[in-house]
Design brief:
This protein is α+β, with helices and mostly antiparallel strands and 596 residues long. The chain folds into three domains: 351 residues, Alkaline Phosphatase, subunit A, CATH 3.40.720.10; 52 residues, no CATH class; 153 residues, Jelly Rolls. The chain is 21% helix and 26% strand. Helix 6 crosses helix 7.
């Protein structure tokens, strides 16, 4: 069917209706649930710019993503189930997309598109997992699962950390708009994976003031579990998000690019907390309907009918083949898509020839299966989603044939993607689910095409009593370095012999300054003294306290320790204190190695 869509684009171009290959803008919310939009019936907030995409383009009624961030992103990028891709967690390296996989950006770049990403990547931090190795020409944002600073945040720009000015979503939108302006004369892919409404609960005062005292009139399905200040902050964040999307859409209009641009909007998982979802069961991290249902809005004026409603089930895994079909671009690589090309539904609507299909949702060892009419949940319960969209009454006893069919499909899918079989109830969980253990794949260091390798605390292992600053590894730093036995290590593989600059980002109370540290890999070592105290106060940026194990951040100082000669090969990189005159060595956010 993709060839048919490509042929249609060719005919449109030949007829003078399309002067160029269309631009592509992908807007991805982080942790926004299906119910966080006024066009889906939420009367407590207004999202007019996002709603306009539904009014002016196509709106999918049942679109499904994965229960958490990185799996959804990997499926969007590749059109393949994330369990095939090396993506099985959300931190400590478990989110890395296997290098052999090709992305939608790879394909579009090969076809002459200029490609940019502005926001949260979350599919690998170091080369060859970095976005610049996955088809993107330019990147501004952060590569980890979440960021601890939303105002004046340090952000990565093409491998280098830079301090930004302002609210993080405003900054990233500015960068995306600049990218669009610079590349208005050629086809572009602009991917904007926004950082909100993911925590931390930081939002500009002008938005928070509007919602901080709002009386909630639409409550979560599990109302007792709803945290009202968190819900209000999400609404304030959604107002900011909607305003920034409005800025992007307005820029397209200003530049006369609306009819030449496909705009896609969706979210990466269900809501990050219990709030209104019109009675659906489940939130982020669950495989029930509320944890995996997302809006999908696709606008392409003159090509996709305004106000079109698509009632067929679809998923994030469908977006890569769909965008390649709509742009007429050949795929990169030869690994088969798991997703379907949705262009027949977008271009022909109800006249499209569309066979029944299944969508699989998984997190850890839990798998749920969605058909057009039913969901088999991770416990083996069957629900009629037409008659019972809130999953309140299992019907496997009344519909045993449907239940058996979906159970068989779930087990076949597990085997196909390399998951362990489901465990019988009471027999425990299958092994291999995500945790905070560091991924055993070594971090590769020393690519000449990308000589800077950042080794954040998130990807290291604390030893000897050293701890991370929170139980959530992303955006954490090492603390409680109070003995010489304590130290962090990173599992690395040096791919090129050479001399490397060694930098650290640290904080240390002035009274404890003076520790001598040793960085060691194999037979090479570098010693340097942490001579200067640097201990700014913890940042106070949140409208209410963090309550989910996230680190409270401070500003870290970057200092060059010196040079070290590293030999090609795999092993453990460590940094230890060989002298410790004070009560603590330091707090450490990252080590950076730069091939000279």
């Amino acid at each position: 069917m993709r060839l048919c869509a490509a042929a249609l684009l060719f005919l449109l171009t030949a007829a003078g209706l399309a002067a160029r290959q269309p631009n592509v803008i992908v807007l991805l919310a982080d942790d926004a649930g299906w119910g966080d939009y006024s066009h889906n019936g939420n009367r407590q907030l207004s999202t007019p710019n996002i709603d306009s995409l539904a009014k002016d383009g196509a709106r999918f009624d049942r679109f499904f993503v994965q229960p958490v961030c990185s799996p959804t992103r990997a499926e969007f990028l590749t059109g393949r189930w994330h369990r095939r891709l090396g993506v099985y967690g959300v931190s400590t390296g478990q989110e890395r997309l296997n290098p052999g996989e090709k992305t939608v950006a790879d394909a579009l770049k090969a076809a002459g598109y200029v490609t940019g990403i502005f926001g949260k990547w979350h599919n690998g931090s170091q080369w060859p997992y970095h976005p610049l190795a996955r088809g993107f020409d330019t990147f501004t944002g952060y590569t980890s699962g979440h960021w601890g600073e939303y105002f004046d945040a340090p952000l990565e720009r093409n491998g280098v950390m830079e301090k930004s000015k302002g609210y993080i979503v405003d900054v990233l939108t500015d960068r995306a708009i600049q990218f669009i302006e610079r590349n208005r004369e050629r086809p572009f892919l602009c991917y904007v994976p926004f950082t909100i409404p993911h925590s931390p609960w930081s939002v500009p005062a002008k938005h928070w003031d509007k919602f901080k005292d709002l009386a909630l009139t639409q409550r979560a399905t599990n109302a007792a579990a709803e945290i009202e200040p968190q819900t209000r902050c999400v609404m304030a964040m959604m107002e900011n998000l909607d305003g920034n999307i409005g800025r992007i859409l307005a820029k397209l209009g200003e530049l006369g690019l609306e009819r030449d641009t496909i705009v896609v909007y969706f979210s990466d998982n269900g809501p990050n907390g219990h709030r209104w979802t019109d009675g659906m069961k489940g939130v982020k991290g669950t495989t029930d309907e509320g944890g995996v249902r997302s809006p999908l809005l696709v606008r392409w004026p003159g090509r996709i009918e305004a106000g079109a409603q698509v009632d067929r089930i679809a998923g994030a895994v469908d977006l890569c083949p769909t965008l390649l079909a709509l742009t007429g671009v050949q795929r990169a690589g030869d690994r088969p898509f798991d997703g379907r090309d949705l262009s027949p539904l977008l271009l022909r609507g109800k006249d499209a020839d569309w066979a029944p299909r299944l969508i699989f949702n998984t997190w850890a060892d839990r798998v749920s299966v969605r058909s057009q009419t039913h969901r088999l949940d991770a416990e083996g319960n069957l629900f009629d989603m037409v008659a019972d969209p809130g999953q309140t009454k299992p019907v496997q006893d009344a519909q045993p044939a449907v239940a058996a069919e979906l159970r068989t499909a779930a087990e076949s899918w597990r085997k196909d993607v390399g998951m362990a079989p489901a465990q019988p109830k009471g027999k425990g969980k299958a092994k291999g689910g995500p945790g905070n253990a560091v991924d055993p794949r070594p971090i590769q260091v020393g690519y000449r095409e990308f000589p800077i390798t950042m080794l954040p605390a998130r990807d290291g292992t604390p030893k000897g009593g050293l701890e991370r600053s929170s139980r959530a590894p992303n955006s954490s730093y090492f603390v409680k370095w109070t003995t010489q036995e304590a130290h962090p290590s990173w599992n690395i593989e040096v791919v090129n012999d050479g001399r490397y600059e060694v930098w650290i980002d640290y904080a240390c109370p002035p009274a404890d300054a003076g520790s001598m540290v040793e960085v060691r890999f194999g037979g090479s070592a570098l010693r340097a003294r942490i001579a200067e105290g640097w201990y700014p106060p913890l940042l106070e940026q949140d409208v209410f306290p963090r309550n989910n194990g996230e680190s409270v951040m401070r500003e870290f100082k970057s200092v060059r320790l010196g040079d070290i000669d590293l030999a090609e090969g795999a092993g453990e990189l460590t940094i230890r204190a060989v002298e410790m005159p004070g009560k603590t060595v330091m707090e450490l956010r990252r080590i950076t190695l730069i091939l000279k």
